[in-house]
Amino acid sequence: MAEQSGREPVEKWPVCDCLISFHSKGFPLEKAQVYTHLRKPYIINDLDMQYDLQDRRVVYNTLQREGIELPRFAILDRDSKDPSKRELIEGEDHVKVNGVTFNKPFVEKPVLAEDHNIYIY
Fold first, then answer.
1. Is the pLDDT of residue 115 over 80?
2. In what residue span(s) does the VIP1 N-terminal domain sit (predicted)?
C-alpha cells in the first residue's frame, strides 16, 4: 500500500484482492482493519494479532503457551497492584526480579516492541 494511502480515507484506498500487512511505526493498522471489513480481501496474516506483537509480555506468554522454548526471563510490571509482580532488588553484580536472579551481564528490554531502548548491564 502506498505511503499516501495511509493518509486517505479507506474508501479511497485502491481495491486489492489480497492483503499482507506488517506493523511498523506509522503504519495505519486501525485503518487497515477498517479496509479489510469494507473490501474483504483475502488476508494473509491476522491484523488483530499485530497488536499482540507490539507487547513483549503478550508475545512471551503466547510462546510459552505454545510450548516454545524461551531464554530465561522475568517481567517487572511496575504498574501492577500485585507486589509480587513488581519486586526488584538490585545488587552490585546482579538484579533479582520477582524472585529470579540475573547475574551481570543481562539485557533489559522495554515492554513495547516499538521501543528500541534496550540496555545491557
1. yes
2. 8-55
According to the model, what pLDDT value does residue 3 have? Answer: 57
User: Whose grid coordinates read 496474516?
Assistant: 45
- Residue 50: all three cell numbers together: 499485530
Beta-bridge partners for 112: 55
| CATH 3.40.50.11950 in the chain, residue ranges | 3-51
User: What is the DSSP pairing of strand 100-103 with strand 107-108?
Assistant: unpaired
Q: How many C-beta atoms lie closer than 10 Å to residue 32's C-beta?
A: 20
| d(C-alpha 43, C-alpha 33), whole Å | 10
Q: Which residue has the cell 499485530?
A: 50
Q: CATH number for the 3-51 domain, one of 3.40.190.10, 3.40.20.10, 3.40.50.11950, 3.40.50.10330? A: 3.40.50.11950
Q: What is the pTM of this model?
A: 0.72
Q: Each residue of 34-57: pLDDT tens digit?
A: 999 999 999 999 999 999 999 999
